[in-house]
Every structure is written in C-alpha cells, then in structure tokens.
TrEMBL record:
Start and end residues of each stretch annotated as Disordered: 125-151
Key words of the record: DNA-binding
InterPro entries: Cro/C1-type_HTH, Lambda_DNA-bd_dom_sf, TransReg_Diox_bact_type
DNA-binding found in the keyword field: yes
Protein name as catalogued: Helix-turn-helix domain-containing protein
PROSITE patterns for the chain: HTH_CROC1
Domain HTH cro/C1-type: 17-71
Domain of life according to the entry: Bacteria
Amino acid sequence: MAKGKVGQAVGSLGDYLKEQRVSARLSLRQLAAQAGVSNPYLSQIERGLRKPSAEVLQQIAKALRISAEQLYIRAGILSPDDGVGRSVELAILGDAGLTERQKQSLLDVYASFLALNAAEDVAKAQETAPKSAEIDPEDLTTEGKSANGQV
C-alpha cells in the first residue's frame, strides 16, 4: 500500500472515530478506558498519527457499539470492493488465537491466492474466446487478382 494512501486511511479513520465518540457522548478518556487503550494512544489514532492494529480497532468498535468491519475498511485493512472474501478476512482478523503478525501474513497469502485465481481466470477466458478472423498475409497480396496478377 502506498504511504500516502495509508496516511489518508488513518486520517479518515481518526475523523470517523472522533465523530462516533462524540455522537456516543463519550470523552476521550472514557472511550480509552472502555476500549482498554491509553488515552494518549487513542488521541494519536484520532489525530491520524497512529495506525491501530485490527485487535485495537475491534476493542474500540466494541466500546463504541459499532461495526468493527467499518473500522477495518476505514483503516485500509479491508477493501470495500472485496465483498467475496470479506468473511474470510473478518474471521482472520477476529481470531484472538493469532498474533497481529500472523493475521497479516494470512491476509497477505489469501490476497495472493485471490489475485492468482483472477489472473488464471483471465488467461482461460482469453484462450476460449473466439479468435478474430485471421487473414493470411498472402491473401492480402492476391485478393481480387487473377492468376496473371491483373485485377
């Protein structure tokens, strides 16, 4: 992921978290306590200075009583366009038995499998597509001419 895109995703996440916290009528300290994170860390997330892990996002979502999936999308962990594999990705992210590094590795492997399968599907489609009428180059030179070369 490009560095600029990560910054935008985190900034967008921070703004969204602040909106949700304010609408839930929670102070920064109250939300931090409910989510089990420090007040300064939560403040840095809201200001777009830190990118929280999926586990921290899940804790914040639970404290705010909102969808963790929305936070994952805003943080750039999930893509809103990836409807097919979302349940697999969410299962990985929600598994408390995995470390953050293991979760990211599994997500990377899963994404690479999807990309490989998509590339194979494109190749198969190109192989089975009807070929356009192929013209023999010699046909171009003799087309419309008689045996002696005159039209």
